[in-house]
Specification:
The protein has 508 residues and is mostly beta strands. The protein folds into two domains: 184 residues, no CATH class; 241 residues, no CATH class. 10% of the residues lie in helices and 34% in strands. It is built from six helices and 37 strands. The strands form ten sheets. A six-stranded mixed beta sheet has the order 30-29-28-25-24-37, with no helix packed on it. The radius of gyration is 25 Å and the shape is globular. This is Vacuolar protein sorting-associated protein 62.
Length: 508
């Protein structure tokens, strides 16, 4: 990794407060049942804390995944005894105990909230094996100007289903240990000026961690570069003048910039039938991934969002009991933007977790739970026709139909694959000095990348039901009622910069 002050140096200097991380723990208490996979969870204290640093809290993790987390530790470097950046808590409040927990457990566990002095904030919770309050020097509270209560980063690094629910205790993994139910602790606030990667380091991160995407062996609709889509006849339509579409210039130079998604402009495939069919299939050899680099928690982490463009999204497929069927036009739409996001620790430059975007939702997966290609490159499986991202191959049934009823997301390994780092394009990194990264013109096209589909979804569903026996009709009808219309492809999608995750955190 190319070196510079701050990023990946082992510590981050926030200007009077130094931050590092510890990955070695001592077990304090363990529940052997409940939580994900009914395997319980274990609560830990950090050990081997560097000299001069202090802990911010304890660490918790479900037992269905390997121990692989970290916790932040801090050191006061302000040299200001009258206004230090750290102070011990003045007391502790007991939030929860395991005494009434009717499950298999190793002893008893007690969760405490540090009571911070005025002008300071607690960052994490304390776990003890005794009902006696912890000592005041167990942890430190942080001066409130170094904290932020708006960016909780809960679920950082763990899948949603790995949250722990035990008889009144809701514990969510976070970068500072864990978050308990609706109780609020603050988060450390980073410093962009000396913690984020420079352009050379970004390029090194891309080459080290850029995912490899595997496409289903039956996939017909593969990705392409945006330029290839434009060069092969993509058209721009304007409302009220639909009979005279404009061919899009290379790099999208003639696309309307900014504005809003107001239905006045949209893109579409070429009019010529053979050209349309060819463009639909994409061009894997030409395809490239587009990288957006952004700070998280004001510089404690870096998120690298990796966007891939598909000219066409294919029809959805469903399983209804013993019946597997294509949903006809349902799910089809022109222009499909999909992404995964790498979360990198700015303390050590290592991959922390990956967000897999799946239609209108998604999930974080810890780096320790991922499959890798040739060392450090996470493997991503793109679902057949819909291109949703998954960490493992197989079939996921979407909707609320039950174990054998749902819209199918099928993934499998094949010789159709894409190394997203091979033709990487860094398209945006707003925290870097102006002109370091030049955004392509098409990035600021904030209208639709495909037309509104003109078919009647309810009519298409009725056609499919007409060939089913009565019992399957009923089950299929219930399934379709619970599937988001977005999954059925009624409308053209917008581009990356319009997504809520562009400037905010990934949402699940």
């Amino acid at each position: 990794m190319p070196k510079c002050d701050g990023f990946a140096s082992g510590t981050i200097d926030l200007g009077g407060l130094q931050v590092s991380q510890v990955t070695t723990f001592n077990k304090i208490w363990r529940a052997n049942e409940g939580g994900p996979d009914n395997l319980g969870a274990t609560f830990y204290d950090p050990i081997a804390i560097p000299q001069g640093f202090s802990s911010l809290g304890s660490y918790a993790q479900p037992n269905n995944v390997p121990l692989s987390g970290h916790i932040l530790v801090v050191k006061d470097t302000s040299n200001d005894p009258s206004n230090p950046t750290l102070k011990p808590p003045i007391d502790y409040t007991l939030l929860w105990s395991s005494e009434s927990l009717d499950t298999k457990k190793d002893g008893e566990g007690y969760i405490w909230l540090p009571v911070a002095p005025e002008g300071y904030k607690a960052i994490g919770y304390i776990v003890s094996g005794s009902s006696v309050k912890p000592p005041h020097d167990k942890v430190s509270c942080v001066r409130e100007d170094f904290t932020d209560t708006t960016n909780s980063l809960t679920n950082d690094g763990l899948e949603n289903e790995n949250d722990l629910y035990l008889n009144g205790l809701n514990a969510y993994h976070s970068m500072s240990g864990f978050v308990v139910g609706n109780q609020r602790v603050a988060n450390l606030k980073g410093n962009l000026s000396n913690s984020m990667p420079n352009l050379n380091q970004i390029k090194a991160l891309i080459q080290t961690y850029s995912p490899v995407i595997y496409f289903h062996p039956d996939e017909q609709y593969l990705p392409s570069s945006v330029d290839w889509f434009f060069q092969n006849g993509a058209l721009l339509y304007h409302k009220g003048d639909e009979s005279k579409p404009t061919r899009v210039d290379n790099n999208g130079l003639n696309l309307p910039q900014g504005g809003s998604n107001d239905d006045t402009y949209w893109l579409d495939l070429p009019l010529d039938g053979s050209s349309k069919d060819r463009v639909k299939k994409g061009n894997l050899q030409d395809a490239c991934a587009y990288f957006h680099i952004k700070p998280v928690s004001e510089g404690l982490f870096t998120d690298i969002a990796i966007w891939v463009f598909y000219p066409f999204n294919g029809a959805s497929r469903a399983k209804v009991k013993f019946l597997n069927l294509s949903l006809g036009k349902l799910g089809e739409h022109v222009g499909d933007w999909e992404h995964v996001t790498l979360r990198i620790s700015n303390i050590n430059g290592e991959l922390n977790s990956v967000f897999f975007s799946q239609h209108s939702w998604g999930k974080w997966v810890s780096a320790s739970e991922l499959e890798y290609h040739n060392g450090n490159k996470p493997v991503v499986y793109a679902s057949l026709h819909g291109h949703a991202s998954y960490p493992k191959p197989g079939c996921v049934l979407l909707g609320s139909g039950g174990a054998d009823i749902g819209v199918r997301d099928d993934t499998a390994k094949s010789d159709k694959m894409m190394d997203t780092g091979a033709r990487a394009v860094v398209m945006a990194a707003e925290y870097l000095p102006a002109a370091t990264v030049v955004e392509p013109p098409w990035l600021n096209y904030e209208r639709k990348w495909g037309p509104k589909i003109d078919y009647d979804v309810d009519k298409e569903i009725s056609k499919l039901k007409s060939v089913m026996i009565w019992k399957l009709k009923k089950e299929f009808g219930r399934l379709m009622e619970g599937v988001p219309r977005e999954l059925l492809g009624e409308d053209g999608p917008t581009g990356p910069k319009v997504k809520t995750s562009w400037s905010g955190d990934e949402t699940v």
